[in-house]
Amino acid sequence: MLTYYSKPVSLSLICTDQPLWSVVETAVTVYQKDHNRFHLLLSAPSFNEPEVGNSLVRESTTRQEQDHADKASSPRQWWLEIASERVIMTHQGHGQVNYRHFWQQGGYGRTRYWLPNESSQHNEPIRLHNFTRSLILKGDPMPEQLRVEYDLLAGDVQLGSYILNIEIKH
């Protein structure tokens, strides 16, 4: 398996019928499984980073508060399994919303979200489905762009049309 380390990447998610647009610039590690199959590992940026120069520390922090802070600052990651006709994207992070999308060219896929839980009980996922209108993978031998256009659905209710675009810079 060939591995390409620390390539700059731009991941964007756009909703075409609602005011939602997000772009993340980070680094990606690309693992080539075979000719048109890849695994991508991206680290999501931290949103809870302390301010530079802030030396204020509460000494009365409880163990539960510290555990929550550790989980919030632990690295979150996106893991993508890419083939020419399907993509699986998993987002994981302690104490964060986690999700898994399965997209298949011209077909229905599954989407699951796990919400953070204060108790030690295992949460049941929120189960949705999607319809993939277009799945485009460009680049040879290494992927340069992945574009997935899909509709997200809860039963018969459409929750929006989305475009996921990943550009790997070489």
Can you tag this structure with a few keywords?
single chain, 170 residues, mainly beta, Lipocalin, ten-stranded antiparallel barrel, 1 helix, globular
Question: What do these coordinates show?
Answer:
This protein has 170 residues and is mainly beta. The protein is built from one helix and ten strands; from the N terminus they run E-E-E-H-E-E-E-E-E-E-E. The chain has one helix spanning 63-73, and strands at residues 2-15, 20-34, 37-44, 76-82, 86-92, 98-104, 108-114, 126-138, 145-154, 157-168. The protein has a ten-stranded antiparallel barrel. The two termini are 19 Å apart.
CATH class: Mainly Beta
CATH topology: Lipocalin
Instruction: Give the termini distance in whole angstroms.
Output: 19 Å
Over all CA atoms, what is the radius of gyration?
18 Å
Succession of helices and strands: EEEHEEEEEEE
What is the β-strand count? 10
CATH architect. name: Beta Barrel
> Which superfamily, in CATH terms, is the homologous superfamily?
Calycin beta-barrel core domain
Helix content, binned percent: under 10%
Q: What's the tally of helices? A: 1
Specify the oligomeric state: single chain
Strand order of the largest sheet: 1-2-3-4-5-6-7-8-9-10
Low-confidence stretches at least 5 residues in length (pLDDT < 50)? 48-72
- What's the number of structural domains? 1
| C-alpha geometry | globular
Q: Average the pLDDT over all residues and give the rounded result.
A: 81
- Helix and strand composition category: mainly beta
Largest sheet: 10 strands, antiparallel, barrel
Into which percentage range does the β-strand content fall? Answer: over 45%
